[in-house]
Amino acid sequence: MGGAMRSVTVVAAIVTYGDRADVALGAVESAWAAGADAAVLVVNGAPAAAVAALEQRAAADRRLRVVTLPDNRGSAGGYAVAMEVAAARGADVLWLLDDDNRPRSDALQRLRAAWALLGADPAVVLACHRTAFPEWRWAADEGRAPSAEPNAFFAFHLRRLVPNLRRRWRRRRRGAPRPRYPLVPLDHAPYGGLFLPRVWVARGELPRTDLWTYGDDVEYTSRLVAQGARLFLCTPAVIDDAVPAWSGRSVWRPPWLDDEEARVYVMARNLAWWERRRARSWLVYGLNGALYLAFLGVLAAARRGPRFALRRLRLTWRGVRDGWAGRLGPPRL
Asked: What's the CA gap between 38 and 90, in Å, rounded?
């Protein structure tokens, strides 16, 4: 089994954008240090100087293939290209990485071992342990991860409020989480750290490019699960982040209060589009939405003032309406 697993070709598929050549090359070097056989780096609309630096690095090392896109197609468009190119380069398994991901040196070895333990089944998809995500640290401790609840609005569901508060209280009493479960079932995961057998790309399962970015990874991985994938968090395979994760915030510091309006709008739109498709009761879904938006308005007013709260609620509501109407693609604000 060990020799067979070593013969499995793993190609890292990485997406970068903007003036982040040094950041992206850090991900490439980390992937190679962990044992990746090759890397595909998609440059998602970047300055000429950044592109030149990356192409110079690729010319010096045949393991790296740089693909330059003329414009920023978002994470969905970038990863769709990266996955197709990595599969064409002979990957048996694709290892998706964000440009600021830094896999630990044994991460790929841990992924290979877990995949072998599960029979090297092409239906098995693994997610690296992102320690920046508090809920994943607790998933590794408790053996279960948060699931996407039908009728939830922005992941909020009234019937989960009391159980979640109880869980938070128990966690405070217990102290810091400890990784006790090596494999934890998931129903969705981010792109960064995904250990994806090539068969899924061969079947045409690629990210939806019209979602552009933010939440497109949730839609993609939940679609894989719906198509029969068995998705697990692989706790021993750890990835650190060179840049703090934008969405890994506490409930009192949600990303909805950030200053960058485009990504707030896109996240609201994409989540509304996805959650509405999963809703089973418009009454329950609407109630959860009203409660969460009221909470968001009060929190925004308390932290940033009433004028900011009003602007942010209008922006969020616009994203929700566009998501419900299926108006996707790059943001036009």
From this structure: 10
Q: What pTM was computed for the model?
A: 0.92
Structurally, what CATH architecture does the domain formed by 2-143+180-241 represent? Answer: Alpha-Beta Complex (3.90)
Q: Whose CA is closest to 289, among 306, 302, 276, 300?
A: 276
pLDDT at 250 over 80: no
Single out the residue of 118, 136, 113 nearest to residue 10, CA to CA: 113
Pairing of strands 93-98, 10-16: parallel
Residue 25 C-alpha from the chain's centroid: 20
Domain residue ranges of the chain, discontinuous segments joined by +:
2-143+180-241, 255-325
Mean pLDDT over 154-163 rounds to: 90
Confidence check: pLDDT of 1 > 50: no
Q: Around Cβ 189, how many Cβ atoms within 10 Å?
A: 27
pLDDT at 227: 97
User: What's the pLDDT score for residue 246?
Assistant: 58
Average pLDDT rounded to a whole number, residues 105-130: 97
| pLDDT surpasses 70 at 32 | yes
